[in-house]
Design brief:
Helix 4 (62-75) packs parallel to helix 5 (94-106). It contains 11 helices and 8 strands. 39% of the residues lie in helices and 15% in strands. The chain is globular, with a radius of gyration of 17 Å. Strands 1-2-3-4-5-6-7-8 form an 8-stranded parallel β-barrel, surrounded by 8 helices. The protein has a single domain, classed as TIM Barrel, CATH 3.20.20. With 266 residues, it is an alpha/beta fold. Bound molecules: 3-methyl-2-oxobutanoic acid and sodium ion. Sodium ion binds at residues 44-46, 57, 84.
């Protein structure tokens, strides 16, 4: 098995095949998800929540993400590896962002992800022009939880929707080759996806994105209990973790997840 590259993902996108992404933080789950056909593994700064037990992603460090990235890379043979740039590691300057992105690439990432829209365009351009592929992330950006006043749906209403579309176009123009759309109305995500020529990855953004990302612990209902509206528990009716992951991949590929019950209105 050969590891997927950015060019392979572009081919999936061109063929109209949905991209299946999971967050992942260790080698064993990386191997399990890889074996279930997950295309991309994201070492999300959600590790602050699900691994470290914090109530936000803000305390996560570059060293934390690098440690988990190295473990995930060792576990997966095929999946494309994306590492999140944590809070404080990229906002200050393009140079600081580059230095921290180098640490994540050296740990095994093939792409870094950073939160933000047009205000991050110069930083994205700085990284991409120096050989570091970038995934952007707009909508609900958890590193800005205190500025946003909580974990709320974004892009509701005409002016917020227009700003989000402008941000998505700006990061594409800066050279981002993928963009996560988190917790926005499904119709807005569909509009953004139609307007861009790069891969859109939705989470709480409806079925019309070019792919979907699921937080591992949410999709497997760990710990058991109520989750966000867009989460589906793939353990429900599954015979094993491998079966749950395979069903999640199939549901993304055939467009049955997310359903209308997982989406937000404009
Ligand atoms: O950290 C994370 O898990 C993420 C995904 C929700 C996109 O950024
Ligand atoms: Na994240």
């Amino acid at each position: 098995t050969r590891r997927l590259t950015q060019a392979d993902l572009a081919k999936l996108y061109a063929a109209g095949e949905k991209v299946a992404m999971f967050t992942c933080y260790d080698a064993s789950f990386a191997r399990l998800l890889d074996g279930a056909g997950v295309d991309c593994l994201l070492i999300g700064d959600s590790l602050g929540n699900v691994i470290q037990g914090h109530d936000t992603t803000l305390p996560v460090t570059v060293a934390d993400v690098a440690y988990h990235t190295a473990a995930v890379k060792r576990g997966a043979e095929r999946a494309f590896i994306i590492a999140d740039m944590p809070f404080g590691s990229f906002q200050e300057s393009p140079e600081a962002a580059f230095r921290n992105a180098v640490t994540l690439m050296a740990a095994g990432a093939q792409m870094v992800k950073l939160e933000g829209g047009a205000e991050m365009a110069p930083t994205i351009q700085f990284l991409v022009s120096r050989g570091i592929p970038v995934c952007a992330h707009v909508g609900l950006t958890p590193q800005s939880v205190h500025a946003l006043g909580g974990y709320k749906v974004q892009g509701k209403g005409d002016s917020a929707a227009r700003k989000l579309l402008d941000d998505a176009v700006a990061v594409q123009h800066a050279g981002a080759t993928m963009i996560v759309l988190e917790a926005i109305p499904a119709v807005l995500a569909a509009e953004v996806t139609a307007a861009l020529h790069i891969i859109t990855i939705g989470i709480g953004a409806g079925k019309d994105c070019s792919g979907q990302v699921m937080v591992l612990h949410d999709a497997f209902d760990i710990p058991p209990g109520k989750k966000a509206k867009f989460v589906r528990n793939f353990m429900d009716g599954a015979s094993s973790l491998h079966d749950a992951a395979s069903r999640a991949v199939a549901a993304v590929k055939d467009g049955s997840y997310p359903g209308p019950e997982h989406t937000y209105a404009a």
